[in-house]
Each structure stands twice: as C-alpha cells, then as structure tokens.
C-alpha cells in the first residue's frame, strides 16, 4: 500500500477508537500529509469509506496533486446536503444521534470553524488535533530520507556561515549568508511552525547578550530581533570577539524541516561559558544513551534536569529565570513543533520513526547562550543522528585570513 | 497624543458604537499595532478605561515594549475573576446581562478561543476582526514613512535581480538574489499575511509557463513552486529567453510591507504579450486617475474590468479561467492582505491614509504572466506612489555582458 493511503487508514482506525465519524482537515500541512496536496479546501475523511477533498482553489492543481477524489467546493449553501450524500453512513444518523466531526482546533480560525458549523447543523464537533499530531509523530522511511536532505543542506550553510564570520558583522548579515545557501538549494523560505503567532524563518543566529534576550518565541534562546515588530531571532547587533555566537538554524527542503544548533566564537570563550558548552554536549551524550524504543519522553527531560542541577547550572538551563522553557527537545518533520516533546507530562514511549531535535542550551543574561542541538531519528535499536555538522565549539581566529590594514 | 493611544481610542469608540464591552486581542500583528509589543499574551481593551496586557512570555520584554499596563498571565484558573477586578464596569453586569467580548475570529484558533470562553462564562462572544481591520486600514504618516523605506529597499533588490538575471538560472536562484539584498537591509524574512494557510516569503518570481500555474494562493499569479509541499511562488524552472519573467516581490522592514511587480524579459517578448503588458500599464494609469478620496473601491475594479473587456483580454485578466481572482488590488501595511480590497462588495470610499497595492496582470496558460504592481498611499488630493522602481518591461539582452565561450 502506498504511504498516504496507509496514513489515512491509521487516521481512520484512530477515529473509530475515538468515536469520531468524520474528520475535516483544512490546514495546509495536514492536507499535504494525508493527500499530497495543499490547495485551499476541506478534506473530509470518514471513519469508514473514501475521503473527498472539496477544493476552492486551485481545483485544477488539486486534481493533479491529490490522491483522493477531488470536487469543486462551490457555495457553502447546500454543502451540508452534499456531504450527507457523499457520506451517507456518517451523516444519516437516527433521530437525536449526532454525527461526531473532528477538526484541527489548534490551528483552525474561529471564523472558518463557525462556517463549517453552520453547514453541518447536525454535527457534534470535537478537537481532532492531537489525533492528527500523534499520527504525524511517527515518520516513514521516506520522510526520514527527506529530513536527511535538509540536514545535508543546512550543514553546507553552517560551513558557509563559519567561512563568512567576521568581527563586526551584524547577526542578520551572517543569517543572510546562511539563507542564501539554503535558498539556492531549494529551501522554501521558512521553517513551518504550527503554534499560533510563532514565526520562524531560519532559526536564530545570536551573538553575546543579544542571544540571551528573552522573547515570546517558544524556545530556549530568543534573540533581540530587528525591533519590536520582529522581536526575536537575529538583529543588527555586531558580532563581537570572545562572546558565544549561537548558530541555531534549519531549513525546509521538500517540505521537511531540520533544526540544529552549534556554538561558535571569534577568538576565545571565557572558561565558564566554555564549560557550560561542554555540559551541553555531555547532556546530549547522556540523552543519546537513553535514546531507544521504550524510553519515556519526560524521563529524558528530568534526567537532563538532574544532570544540570548536579553541575550547578540549573538557573541557566534552557533560558534564564522566568523565561526558562520547560523542555529539552521537540518532534520535527513537516513542522518544527511536532510531537513528541521531551518535557514533563509527555508520557509517550519512544518509538522507531520518531524524529526529535534535542537542544540542551545555557543562557547567561548579558553574556550570551551556548549549546548544541542535533536532530535524531529513533530506530529499532537506538537512534540515527540526522544532523551531520561537526560538533564542538567552532573557533574562528580573531583576524582570520583577513589582511590587517594599518 | 501619541499614535498608539490614538489607535486605542479609535478602537474604543468603534466598540461603543458596536455595543462591545471588551476586546481581547491575541494576534501578534494586532498586538504590535495597538501597544507596540507582540509578546505572547492577551490584551484586554475595555470600551471605557485603560487596557491591560496579560502576558505569558516574555513578561520582561513586554514590560519594556508595551505602552499599557502589563501583568503576568499566570494560571487560566482564576483569570475570569482577575478580569472582573480589572474591568469592573464591563464584567459586573446586572443579572441576565452578558458582557459582550470581541475577539479576532479571522485568526484566533478554536482551541485558544475555547480556553478564553471557559475563563469568561458570563460573556457573549462576537467577531471583532472587521472592526480591527477597519481601524488598521487608515495609516498614519509614520506608517507611510515605514512603507516608503520598504519601497526603497525592494527597489535595490529589483535592480540587483536585473543585474543577476541570466538565461538558464532557476527562478529560485534569482529569488535568492533578491532575498539576500533585502535581508542585509533588515527585511524580517517574510511578508506577513493574515489569511489562514497563506504563506508569502518574498512574493514570486515566475518565468514563462511556471508563473501561469494556478495555486491556492489568493493572488493573480501562482507559480509552480518547489514541489507539492510548497506549491506556489518560485521553483526550479530555468528562466528562458523570450518569455515573460514576472518579478512580484516585497519586503518587510520595521514591520511594514511593500508589494510591487515588474515584468522582465531576456531578449524579446512576443507582440501579444508585450501588448498585454502595455494594457496593464494603461489600466494602472486609468486607475491612478480615479485614485482620490471619495472613489468607491469596487468601482476601481469594475472600471478595470470594463477596460480589459474592451481590449478583448477578459479571459486573461487576474489569472485564467476558473483560477481568476476577483480583485484589482489590496490594502497593505503590517500585513499584505489588509483592507480595502479593490473588488466587488467593497463599498469603502477611498480615504487619505489608505495604502493599496494595485496589480493589473494578465495570465497566458503555458506562456506566462505579464503585469505591473505599484503600492499607493491615498492623500488629501489624490495619491502618492510609494513604489519607486522604474516601470516598463525590463529588457535584458540575451547574452548581456557575459563573455560567450566558444
């Protein structure tokens, strides 16, 4: 069976378990995952039977791309009765019994939801987002191949960044170097993120104090950004000597995202920051040692907390003070904020096919952020490290290969 | 009075007219517009009295940025009673009377909405998105200055693209040139868009048939894109000789977006496409002639339709066949899809401070898209053209300045 049919069957089987009659999928990434097309429309997947993709635009393109039946959406008036015809088993219930319809409550805007509610007065609506996210959590071999390709490209960009890194250049200038490499290699221009209001372009290159500036962004390092209208990630701050340069970057090739972090310095890092960096590598190695099917996600997080506490760096771990985030890593695939999360409350046991970015980092307000991040696929016997960039602090000599003018 | 206080007063006055007691604002761009900060949280603006910004993260940064009272959000349990204390006039109603609360239904995800509903059981919820979008429709002098700066930067990028344009290079390679210029000049990395599932990085550079490929994107030209996981905008297609190259690009500096289109060619365009391009300039000039306070938005669209019909190009205008879009232009500012829209049903009279991208384009399936797009500010007496790039078809000689190897 082809991969997308298998995904839809997994969804249908979960729907039956959960007592859901129909799933309506509207978000571009979820659409792509289930049918290979992200044109504007509604995908209806019944618990039993064949799905129908009702498309507003572009119908022509949806028919080329999608591997399910495609119909023109047309007017919302009468849409309810079209659905009843298309899915008689689901929508023709006995008196008083309602059709249970699930939607992606985590991303679906209220306006669109109310339009759907209006078209289906006989439905009882439930949140289907966890169900979809849990299916997407387990990657196929083909998905992992796609992430490997993103890993290869981001490594080229990392090396390009190191070769371009010069004292005094702004963070955003170094980011532009990274972006040029990945774009020429087919990066789509941003890393998709599911969370409301979250924006990620290429991650964050942050130098010294700027990297330690807290932000709304749901990650351990925020960044000063370009100003209050874009208050995160890289900004205008000139990169200085002897301060940590956090190079937290990723790209999205063929729809799949990679996420990695390295720490660089022009000249030399102060001893305590170097030691904190080394602790981040130690935490990563310890985490790797437990990275195998059966390990409970939250235990990876609590073990890391314990290690960091023993080293006396708890206050600096994954942000500082009130702005600390409470996780060690996150699933990644078509989006950067997938399941599982390595955090308290996530009781998933690791399974082959999970892909997780693990990112121990230490924040020093006024001084910077150090750390490392690799993306891993869980295998039958342990893990495959998908990230290929060399580890360790990347040291760029102060004057490098530049001719020093007198 | 400072600008943001004035914006909030305009909102409060509209709220009173509409019978809304409280507005809760959650979207990053709306937050930035009203209080200068886009940290994660809820901004409550009462119809009368002072707003409070309840922030989850980063509280520290919100306090630096926002010009209203900032409080830590804390637990959602008890949030209702905190609100009742903060806004006694709004939340302590007589028996049976509900507090009318407006939210951004066009962007707010259902999950977050239901969390807010749960915290405020005594509220009657209404959609506040049009109200907010109508306030944002009228730009201040400072906002127009910001858009002028984006216009200056995108013009540099356009010239860089022309200088880099060579036969055989992929569309995405030319786009990478544009992106490098704008990023080095402070572009935030994407052009923000409000519409669900809509993604715009830098617009679209599309060559020949690729530009005419329809997509889900709500604009006249779609593009082949990089594949079904990113099925719009620039792709791998090599740019050829004698075909239209649509350079529809923008950037976002200091939060404000510009949007412009130019048509280029290596060698020469076929006569009919050249004539279609000339018609797009004619339509633009005719539209400019009506661009002044008092003109009704939809009349600009219907007048353009009439002009195009007279020239016999209706089938090609703003897309082709079923994939035609039904507008001539769109408001632009912090987001690319603002009010007003130049389309049927938009009865707004033009007002000083409106900023509109006007984009007559003609699509020829299998051959390409030609057209032009400028962004204009409406003034007391007419308009200011914010776009500064030179008009006309940009002709690049076939071999240009390259040394032809034997």
TrEMBL record, chains A, B:
Ranges for domain Creatinase N-terminal come to 7-138
Name this protein carries in UniProt: Aminopeptidase P family protein
Q: Which CDD domains match?
A: APP_MetAP (cd01066)
Q: Which organism is it from?
A: Paenibacillus hemerocallicola
Query: What SUPFAM superfamilies does the annotation carry?
Result: Creatinase/aminopeptidase, Creatinase/prolidase N-terminal domain
| InterPro entries the UniProt entry points to | Creatin/AminoP/Spt16_N, Creatinase/aminopeptidase-like, Creatinase_N, Pept_M24, Peptidase_M24B
Q: Which UniProt keywords apply?
A: Aminopeptidase, Hydrolase, Protease
Lineage: superkingdom: Bacteria
GO molecular-function annotation terms?
aminopeptidase activity
Residues annotated as domain Peptidase M24: 146-380
